[in-house]
Amino acid sequence: MNLNDQQQNREQWGSKVGFILAAAGSAVGLGNLWKFPYTAGQNGGGAFVLVYFAILILVGFTLMLAELILGRHTQLNAISAYRKIKEKWAWVGGIGILASYLILSFYSVIGGWVVNYIVKSMTGAFNTADTEVLSSIFVNFITNPIQPIIYQAIFVILTLGIVIGGVSGGIEKYSKILMPGLFVMMVLIMIRSVTLPGASEGIKYLLLPDFSKIDGNVMLAALGQVFFSLSLGMGVIITYGSYLGKDENLPQSSFTIPLIDTIIALLAGLAILPAVFAFGFDPAGGPGLIFITLPAVFSQMPLGNVFALLFFLLVLFAALTSSISLLEASVSYVVDEWKMSRKKATFILSFVVFLLGVPSSLAQGPWSHIKFIRGLDFLDSMDFIASNLLLPIGGFFLCIFIGWVWGIENALKEATNDGKISFKLAKFWAFLIKWVAPIAILIVFIQGLK
Ligand code: PHE
After folding, report:
1. Measured from the CA of 36, which atom of ligand 1 is nearest?
2. CA count, 13 A, side-chain hemisphere, 180
3. Of the residues 100, 228, 323, 391, which should be mutated to test ligand 1's pocket, given the most ligand atoms within 8 Å of the CB?
4. How far is it, in rounded angstroms, from Cα 104 to Cα 350?
5. Relative to the CA of 32, which ligand 1 atom is closest?
6. What b-and-e string marks burial along 99-128, b requiring 16 or more CB atoms within 10 Å of the CB?
7. How far does residue 192's CA lie from ligand 1's centre (Å)?
8. What's the pLDDT score for residue 363?
9. In which residue ranges of the chain is pLDDT below 70?
């Protein structure tokens, strides 16, 4: 099959809403619900949120559009997309796919924790607001050498099952139902959380920036979080864009997706940080934050058990719509380039990613004393390498590629469907992708490494 046949036979999204929801489904996930609140908590709250917004606007939206353009133009996976335009640039797509794979390895570990919490809420295991009890339930589980690995395996199997179903049959179908459900649920939990006695401290902590807290580390964390949360820099959005029809409005999508993503992240922040203060947890408490804080919130709600169960189910679905996109990035490469069947590729890649995730799981318990880079354990090191190093590097070269190598004119032609739709911000976007985004990424990257 040559490239052209391949492009003609390529699967497409079944509908416009389907694509937006699937792309938003990729963006909205553990990054919003689990990572955003605790990263904000560790990096000065409002200071972090402020920097996050700045980067979101200057870099997030800009790169989102760039990736959609590249994907739809070439109708190929990330590596082949670069290669098709400029042979020598394929490695940038490679960095992205590598990052997505590393992320998937630890993502599945956290996904497994969520599965376990679904089971726990069915058995009413944490029907208490006692912070000590809730912390020890969490710690006992994640430090166990075997149990979390079993749950991680369950999460990988769920991901695999959906990816085998293919683009419109699998990914799209699930996203359509579950994303709106998640939104409603988050609003309800947030309302309970911000009305807890003592919650106002948390709201202030999240929304009032303390400028003195902004430093290189906070900026690097915010940059990494924007990439992570928007699924940027790793070929996922390129891949999803490649399944898009030629009449889709890309500039509009590149605005809608970050908007949905940010709303959900803020809702999660507002659901968790006020509760952290109300119950006297530590805002810098790290990855356990949602697993320890929210059960306390649920215990203060009528029908708390039901809420807990529903909530963790929705978190699981949000995580799955992200993990399938992470897996899809490498599956589509192997299917396109190595001509492997989708089924076989999915099985092999899932198995390897499961093995790669095992050390991340063990790093919570038996291997917690082993430090890799920057004094971080295995899971946090994988996250740091992928989110804070590979993604910005991939993102920087994406800007250079679109802005300078392939050229703005070609990019805008694709963005406007050959001039058929208007894109009012075209000039501004061109300026952002050529100058502002790459320079911002570079500065933050260097500052953060110091
Ligand atoms: N954006 C997803 C989240 O916030 C994670 C993800 C990263 C998904 C990269 C795909 C690619 O949970």
Report:
1. 4
2. 6
3. 228
4. 9
5. 4
6. bbbbbbbbbbbbbbbbbbbbebbeeebbee
7. 27
8. 95
9. 1-11, 13-15, 166-172, 174-175
From 322, 331, 391, the mutation candidate for ligand 1 (largest count of ligand atoms within 8 A of CB) is 322
CA dist., res. 248 & res. 243, Å (int):
11
- For ligand 1, atom 9, the nearest C-alpha belongs to 231
| Alpha carbon of 264 to ligand 1 centroid (Å) | 13
Instruction: Output the pLDDT for position 307.
Output: 84
Mutational test site, ligand 1, from 36, 109, 231, max ligand atoms within 8 Å of CB: 231
Q: How confident is the model over 201-218, as pLDDT tens digits?
A: 999 999 999 999 999 889
From the CA atom positions of the chain, what is the Rg in Å?
21
Q: Return the pLDDT at 169.
A: 63
Q: Which is nearest to 332 in space by CA: 445, 197, 219, 240? A: 240
CA of 231 to the centre of ligand 1 (A): 4
pLDDT for 448 equals 74
> Which residues, judged by CB distance below 6 Å to any ligand atom, belong to the binding site of ligand 1?
26-27, 29-32, 100, 103, 228-229, 231, 234, 236, 322, 325-326
CB 175 within 8 A of CB 21: yes
* CA-closest candidate to residue 37, choices 242, 255, 293: 293
Protein residue closest via CA to atom 11 of ligand 1: 231
Q: Which two tokens stand for residue 257?
A: 């997706």
| Phi (first) and psi of residue 125, to 5 degrees | -65, -25
Tell me which residue has its CA closest to atom 4 in ligand 1.
31
Answer positive or negative: Cα dihedral of 316, 319, 325, 331. Answer: negative
Ligand 1 closest atom vs CA 322: 8
Residue 318 Cα to ligand 1 middle (Å): 10
From 207, 220, 244, 195, select the one nearest 74 (Cα to Cα): 244
